[in-house]
Every structure is written in C-alpha cells, then in structure tokens.
Amino acid sequence: MISDPAALSELVAGLQSCDTIAMDTEADSLHCYFEKVCLIQITAAGRNSLVDPLAQLDLQPLLHTAASKRLVFHGADYDLRLLHRIGTFEPRDLFDTMIAARLTGKPALGLAALVKQYFGVELSKASQKANWAIRPLPAQMVDYAHNDTRYLIELASILEGDLKNLGRLGWFTESRDRMVAASRETKERDESTVWRITGSSALSPRAQAVLRILWFWRDAEARAWDRPPFHIIGNDEMLRTAKLVAEGGAFSTPRMNTRRRKSFEVVVNLALQIPEKEWPKTEKPQRRRTTREQQKRFEDLKKTRDRIAADLGLESSIIAPRGALEAVAADPSSPALMEWQRQLLGLEIQAAKKARAA
Predict the structure, then answer these.
(1) Inter-residue contact 120 to 112 (CB < 8 Å)
(2) For residue 62, is it within any domain?
(3) Residue 161: inside a domain, yes or no?
C-alpha cells in the first residue's frame, strides 16, 4: 500500500517510462453517505500497486502522469467520475474492456467472466461489497484489489484484436468517447422528484405525502450519521409505513436507537397533518404523441435493427436501444444514436438520398 509521499513519488517516476497503465478504483458508497475514493489500483510493466487516497497524499502528479499514457479500465464511467473529484484527470487514450467486450458480442461482460474465459482464472467476488475505507486492508481485499487490474492490459490487447478483425474499432472509439464525455457531466438531483422511489406511484396521494417527508427525514439522518440511507430504513419499509399510516393502520417503528426512533415517530405524525392541497400530485407519464408516419418509421427501424443484430450476433440494444429508436423516429436528426449506429441502420444513406432528391 502506497501511503507516503516518497513511495508515491517512486511510483510516479516508474510510470514515466510505461506506455500502458491499467487502473481501477474502490469507494465506500455502501458504507458512507459521503462517498470517497478509498483505493487506486495500478498495474504497469508487470508491477501491481495500490495507492491510498485516504493518506492525504498529493495525487495530482499521479493523475497527470497516468492521463498522459494509454489507460485500460473495465467499466470506466464510475472510475472516471470518482477520479474527477480528487483532481484534474483528462485521459489522452483510454481503452475500456467492458465496452470492447460488449461490441464484440461476448456473452458475459463482467471482469471475472472475461478473466475466466481468456485466462482460466476464477476470481473471488468476496470483497465486492467490502468497506474499502478500513485500514489496514485484509490480505483477501488486497488480492481482490490487485486482480481488478492484473489482467487488464493483456485482456485489452485480445479484445482490441477482436475489434480490428471484426472491423468495429470505429464503433469502439465513438462509444468510448461518448462514455468519457458523459462521465464529465455533473448530475444534480431534482428535489421535487428525488423522493419518488420505485413503488411510490402505486401509493395514494396521502401515502405519497407521508413517503415524501419520510424520505427527506431519512436523507437528513443519513447525512448526519454519514451512512447510506438504507442503513437508516430501507425503501420497502418506507413504502409499507407510508401506506399503513395513510390508511390509519398501526405501524411498527423500525429498529433504531432511542433518539432516532422518537424522531421517526414525530415525523410520521407531522406527515399526517399535511393538508390535502399539499399532497403530491399524481405524475402521469408524459408520452410523446406519435403520428402514424412516426410509428411506421419506428417499426421499420426496429425490424432493421433486429435483423442486423441477429446477423452480427449482438444484442439488439447494442445496435440501438428502444428509446433511441423512438427519438430518431420522432426526429431523424436526434443525437440519440451514434454515427456508427446510424450507418448500420442505413440512416446516413437515407439522408444522402433525400439530399440528392432535393
């Protein structure tokens, strides 16, 4: 574990001469409200290293050096979002083995499945939900962390070869670039709808009013305790409580310490006093009105997509998700599809024909 400036400087110096670096990160989102990066795994030139972001190190030299190399990640979106939080990190060249596996039609996309397929090694999943903020890390977690990057560089070489042989390297590049761009976007939560968890739409308006106040109470408690909200009370239990309270039935207070239990009961009683005019309005799905022409265009695109997917041995959603087809059927200029997807579906040819006819 690299946890002091001297060891980190030595690692960064060693990476200067490397062409390719495999990276991964671990965070503590299952154990804290305020998620933080707890570990950075690196494999380069046959050496596996673990860097400790919790040791108050200046990580910018590491991020700067790594970004100047060819980087290999598996499912990079989440890792990029985490790394953007701790410094400036703009990779020059990134290869994502999950995207590559998807575009080459691999039946399973998880790292463990790919490592077993190509290297015959069974990776343990025992530490997937572990608390990566604990120190020192147990040997089992250290092995798990190393294995997240140990095989990535060789795996990337294999998958890149497959992409070239299939003529899909351009597909990969465009898909990768879209993922990288999306990872830079900051997602702001909508306070007016964030409480609408799965199952809330089935509740009565009064029960939704109870659920809404319970959700914000839980969120405040989780923030103060710095624990994930489900450590306070689970979604299913909140839904059950909201329904029972709104119907005037008896409810059981979840297992909590005395202060939190009293606070919970006060909040439930307050929820019952919310006037009807302040109850949430039932949300009706806003479905876009489609013309007969647009519906026919969608059906034609779907048939074309399904035929191409079958011919290529790929999942149809890889060629074009249903939502993207609907968007393009409604507006042919929609950016919902990437260029390689549009070309496969013949949309570029259709556009060219229309331009010539005009």
Answers:
(1) no
(2) yes
(3) yes
140 and 124 in contact (C-beta within 8 Å)?
yes
Q: Does residue 122 share a domain with residue 215?
A: no
Give the range of the structural domain holding residue 128, as residue numbers without chain letter.
5-183
Residue that is written with structure tokens 């790594």 in the block: 66
Residue 38 inside a domain? The answer is yes
Q: Quote the number of domains for the chain.
A: 3
Shared domain for 167 and 268, answered yes or no, is no
Compute the distance between CA of residue 181 and CA of residue 187 in angstroms, rounded to an integer: 13
pLDDT in tens, the chain (358 residues): 999 999 999 999 999 999 999 999 999 999 999 999 999 999 999 999 999 999 999 999 999 999 999 999 999 999 999 999 999 999 999 999 999 999 999 999 999 999 999 999 999 988 989 999 999 999 999 999 999 999 999 999 999 999 999 999 999 999 999 999 999 998 888 999 999 999 999 999 999 999 999 999 999 999 999 999 999 999 999 999 999 999 987 777 788 889 999 999 999 989 989 999 999 987 666 666 789 999 999 999 999 999 999 999 999 999 999 999 999 999 999 999 999 999 999 996 555 445 445 5
Same domain, 87 and 234: no
> Where is 25: in which H helix or E strand?
strand 20-27
Rounded-to-integer distance, Cα 23 and Cα 91, Å? 12
321 and 273 together in one domain:
no
* Helix-helix angle 205-225:235-246, to 10 degrees: 140
Residues 98 and 204 in one domain: no
Please indicate, yes or no, whether residues 80 and 119 belong to a single structural domain of this protein. yes
Contact at 8 Å (CB) between 319 and 325? no
Query: Do the bridges between strand 93-96 and strand 70-73 make them parallel or antiparallel, or are there none, so unpaired?
Result: parallel
Q: Which residues of 156-192 are buried (b: 16+ CB within 10 A; e: fewer)?
A: bebbbebbeeeebbebbeebbeebbeebeeeeeeeee
Kind and range of the H or E run holding 112: helix 111-119
Give the other-Cβ count within 10 Å of 126's Cβ: 11
Structure tokens at 80: 């990029």
Beta carbons within 10 angstroms of residue 68's beta carbon: 15
From 231, 251, 278, the end of a domain falls on: 278
